[in-house]
From TrEMBL:
GO molecular function, one term: nucleotide binding
Protein name (Swiss-Prot/TrEMBL): Vitamin B12-dependent ribonucleotide reductase
Record flagged with keyword Nucleotide-binding: yes
E.C. number: 1.17.4.1
InterPro entries in UniProt: RdRp_reductase_class-2, RNR_2_N, RNR_lg_C, RNR_NrdJ/NrdZ, TSCPD_dom
Length: 967
């Protein structure tokens, strides 16, 4: 895409500049002029309180951007006071503010060979951003091009020494970083333990005691109105004498939370009493060595050493300490592990210093007092219509984005001078990607399969190879990073390690083969060009959680994560939302060879059930393609670990991801995850056992180890009273008139023929059903007669038809398959067909919609207008709702409120008790809870009150884009 050529030198140049080839944009046409723009109103409401928390009307976005994406960009990234003339009101203003700043800096610092190259760079970058091919991390959108400090980095690593001045400076530096909405991590292992003496003769406080002050500071600044809650990482070496106290800190606090909760205090996340407990604002990680892990395997003793002189303070059983780490993680998800020797074996700057810590989400690992600016590519954008991965355009995009990221360091501001100096001297970048889970599913590849892992590894290798290739080319233009000379041999050694790992990749299918070949070539160029030019950047890549920016790019999945669930919410232009089946599913089914009728039936089933188990016509060997992070077919913990292990050798940094475990997971299983992660070469691992934390607001009380009680507890000092009078309900039979309207339907299911006669009351309600199957006098005919009588009597005694439909649809047994009914093309059994047909004949549209049953005409209307309803209001274009290659396949159904219908046995009359509010879903996480009947263990959003969903090692809100601390 680019090459270096001779040209007039600019500031900082060596006499050559980059020639930028035009790949994505069209010469002579500005990227904005190629697309259709529209005006939208962004109004954001807190679902819990009904309060309007944000409103800006008439904002301008491309018509293919989702409402969710435009809402999040408007609320999070537009600058200027709302309602003022200086407030940004168009995506064009936002992108121009950022891209023009980058281009100007590129010209000033000699990155381009000529003015035409700078113009092409600007238009190419604009095209990629407006078409959602990539996004910079959030601080870029917050700050670049504004009067605020030009902070571009989301990830910071601090340092602290064994002195009071250094410790207090740590508090101050963290505070400034939190104030700007970013996070930081550091290693406390230089601080003397509580088992060592001070020079005055007294006993040292130890690092855990100083953690209390830092935690309180983080909590205070968070509540003071930062862009998002404070995010921090605290690391302690496994040989520190206070390691046991460190391991047990958060688990001990969790016990305190339970005790206070049981006493009636509000201990939910964000509750008014949660601030009384400590260590809740940080992720904790233990930095383990190969020596320690081998001692765990062998059951040997392990030495804890003093910080001042390295003397042995105590010898402990390594296996016992490892077990304590796993127990604490089982109890409260902390601590995670960071594998020190693996991290430093891939370190390009060991002559400068060791890597001792990470950012809060563990994906950025580099020198103390450093920072990293990030950008992530949307992988699904590079999937061609013929289901091949566009290798050439992906590499070209990586090189262009990498160039922009390096330019940003030239003009960026930093929270401390030490961080600024280290970043300018080593220029660490973190290019990454999102939508891997959606890409694999669209290609019919399971996340936890060899095919899925190989493609992920190949793409990651190509991305990092393209980054370092561009870094070597930039070194020839504007010089290598300042610290390269002293680390040249080590840097080149790591490049050869990446190259060797890439050479070890073996193709499994036709999709990954060209990616592997391109990656091998890129790494060959890296090694050869790097020998001559050196490198502009000490680090090139990592995998961030892509929380808010994932929504900005309309990604179905974040970072390296699998799909969260198979159903999701889609907001509509003009208000409202639509429940749809993820649009990658029809594409995946088509790739797997299913016919349109089969795809339609499977999509209908997923819409109703939220999973693929027993979906009509779906082969069991294809289930793995649709495994998700949550739900009935959730991925096994080692499925997450194996995917991380596949891509880790191709990253400069690490991976922001949590290994999810079910509530039933044991301590021994967590030990195995930690042990296998070390053996497989991961740099860090964090786990989360479902429902392990108390301070985690749940939507209901499902699960045995509840984060909060199932029953509603009255506030302390109040007594909740209600009077319940039970009235026995005596059913009355409503007999059919002697002469009634009936209809007879002939049908074929899987080749078996039958007849159904149904009769109705005068008001049109169904009152009887008679089925004829098999020969008169046969066992089957007799069973059908008895079944018909039982259903008919039930209907006449008041059992709603909806109850029968909900119970008997989706029953699966032979005969099953295609039918001759255009409204019910596929059926899992004769019972499934009969009650779907009855629903279509006798239930109102709203009743059928709640059960996910539609006529062929209604499904066709949905494809054309985006609505099943006979008279649909114009709430959004069909193109927006069905923006997928398979527009001829139904991709969703209207959202419906889930209502539990009790059988009429007895009724309760409740006096002086508030009416229960009908539960409805506002996000994908809440929708999954309603469909699956199980709780999603995620916090509620502080801004809009909806349930968040996991993104990497933190959480992100689908409603407003708020995050729990990720970039």
């Amino acid at each position: 895409m680019t090459e270096t050529v001779s040209g007039a030198p600019s500031k900082g140049a060596t006499g050559r500049g980059l020639h930028i080839e035009r790949v994505f944009s069209t010469e002579g046409v500005h990227p904005y002029d190629e697309i259709t723009w529209e005006r939208r109103d962004v109004v954001q409401t807190n679902w819990k309180t009904g309060e309007t928390v944000f409103e800006q009307r008439g904002v301008e976005f491309p018509d293919f951007w989702s409402v969710n994406a435009s809402t999040i960009v408007t609320t999070k990234y537009f600058r200027g006071a709302v309602g003022s003339e200086v407030r940004e009101q168009s995506l064009k203003q936002l992108i121009d503010r950022v891209v023009k700043t980058y281009t100007k800096a590129g010209v000033e610092h000699g990155y381009f060979s000529a003015a035409a190259d700078a113009e092409t760079f600007e238009q190419e970058l604009t095209w990629l951003l407006v078409h959602q091919y990539f996004s910079f991390n959030s601080p870029v959108w917050f700050n670049v091009g504004t009067e605020a400090p030009q902070q571009v980095s989301a990830c910071f690593i601090l340092s602290v020494d064994d002195s009071m001045d250094s410790i207090l400076n740590w508090y101050k530096e963290e505070g400034f970083i939190f104030k700007g909405g970013s996070g930081a991590g550091l290693n406390l292992s230089r601080i003397r333990s509580s088992k060592e003496l001070l020079s005055s003769g007294g006993t040292a406080s130890g690092p855990v005691s100083f953690m209390r002050g830092a935690d309180a500071s983080a909590g205070t600044i968070k509540s003071g109105g930062a862009t998002r809650r404070a995010a921090k990482m605290v690391v302690l070496d496994v040989d520190h004498p206070d390691i046991v106290e460190f391991v047990e800190t958060k688990a001990r606090e969790e016990d305190k939370i339970r005790a206070l909760r049981d006493a009636g205090f509000d201990m939910d996340l964000g509750g008014k009493d949660i601030t009384s407990v400590q260590y809740q604002n940080a992720n904790n990680s233990v930095r383990v060595t190969d020596e320690f892990m081998r001692a765990v395997e062998k059951g040997d003793k392990f030495a804890l050493r003093g910080r001042k002189h390295g003397e042995v303070i105590e010898e402990i059983d390594a296996r016992e300490l490892f077990h304590k780490i796993a127990v604490a993680a089982w109890q409260c998800a902390d601590p995670g592990l960071q594998y020190d020797d693996t991290i430093n074996d891939w370190h390009t700057n060991p002559e400068t210093g060791r890597i001792t810590a990470s950012n809060p989400c563990s994906e950025y690992m580099s020198l103390d007092n450093s920072s990293c600016n990030l950008a992530s590519l949307n992988l699904l954008k590079f999937l061609s219509d013929d289901n091949t991965f566009d290798v050439v355009r992906f590499q070209q995009a990586c090189e262009l984005v990498f160039t922009a990221m390096d330019i940003s360091i030239s003009f960026a501001d930093f929270p401390t001078e030490a961080i600024g100096q280290t970043t300018r001297d080593y220029r660490q970048l973190g290019i990454g990607y999102a939508n891997l889970g959606a890409l694999l599913m669209a290609l019919g590849l399971g996340y936890d399969t060899d095919g899925g892992r190989t493609l992920a590894a190949a793409i990651t290798s190509l991305m990092t190879g393209a980054g370092y290739k561009r870094s070597a080319e930039l070194a020839a233009v504007v010089g290598p990073y300042a610290g390269y000379a002293r680390n040249a041999e080590a840097h080149q050694r790591v490049m050869r390690k990446h190259q060797a790992a890439s050479d070890d990749l073996r193709s499994i299918n036709s999709v990954d083969s060209p990616v592997i070949k391109a990656a091998a070539k890129a790494w060959g160029d890296v090694v050869e060009t790097g020998k001559v030019n050196g490198f502009r950047n000490a680090q090139a890549s990592l995998l961030a959680p892509t929380g808010t920016i994932g929504f900005m790019m309309d990604c179905d999945t974040t970072g390296i994560e699998p799909d969260f669930s198979l159903v999701k919410f889609k907001k509509l232009v003009g208000g409202g939302s639509l429940q749809i089946v993820n649009l990658t599913i029809p594409r995946a089914l088509k790739k797997l060879g299913y016919q349109p009728e089969q795809i339609e039936a499977i999509v209908d089933y997923i819409a109703e059930n939220g999973h693929v188990v027993d979906a009509p016509g779906l082969k069991t060997e294809h289930y793995e393609v649709f495994d998700t992070a949550m739900g009935k077919r959730s991925l096994a913990p080692m499925g997450h670990v194996r995917m991380m292990a596949a891509v880790q050798p191709f990253l400069s940094g690490a991976i922001s991801k949590t290994v999810n475990l079910p509530e039933s997971a044991t301590v021994e299983e967590i030990e195995q995850v930690y042990l296998d992660s070390w053996k497989l070469g991961l740099k860090a691992t964090a786990v989360y056992r479902d429902n392990c934390k108390v301070g985690q607001p749940l939507s209901d009380g499902k699960g045995d180890n509840k984060g909060k009680d199932s029953n509603v507890t009255a506030p302390v000092g109040e007594v909740a009273t209600k009077v319940v009078e039970k009235v026995v309900y005596a059913p009355t039979r409503k007999r059919l008139p002697k002469s009634r309207v009936s209809r007879t339907t002939s049908f074929t299911v899987g080749g078996a023929e039958g007849y159904m006669t149904s009769g109705a009351h005068d008001d049109g309600q169904l009152g009887e059903v008679f089925l004829k199957l098999g020969k008169q006098g046969s066992t089957l005919a007799g069973v059908m007669d008895a079944f018909s009588i039982a259903v008919s009597i039930g209907l006449q005694y008041g059992v709603p038809l909806e109850t029968y439909v909900s119970k008997f649809t989706n029953l699966r047994f032979e005969p099953a398959g295609l039918t001759d009914d255009p409204d019910v093309r596929m059926s899992q059994s004769i019972m499934d067909y009969i009650f779907r047909r009855l629903a279509l004949d006798y239930l109102a549209f709203d009743q059928r919609a709640a059960l996910g049953i539609y006529t062929a005409e209604e499904r066709q209307r949905y494809l054309e207008t985006g609505s099943y309803e006979p008279v649909a209001e114009e709430t959004g274009s069909a193109a927006e709702l069905m923006a997928a290659p398979e527009a001829d396949v139904e991709a969703g159904r209207a959202a419906s409120e889930v209502v539990t219908k009790d059988e009429p046995v007895e009724a309760e009359v409740v006096e002086d008790a508030p009416k229960a509010e009908a539960k409805s879903a506002h996000t994908t996480a809440e929708l999954l809870e309603l469909i699956s009947g199980t709780a999603v263990d995620s916090p509620l959003c502080f801004t809009c009150g909806t349930k968040m969903r996991p993104a990497g090692s933190c959480y992100v809100c689908e409603g407003c884009g708020s995050t729990s601390g990720c970039s």
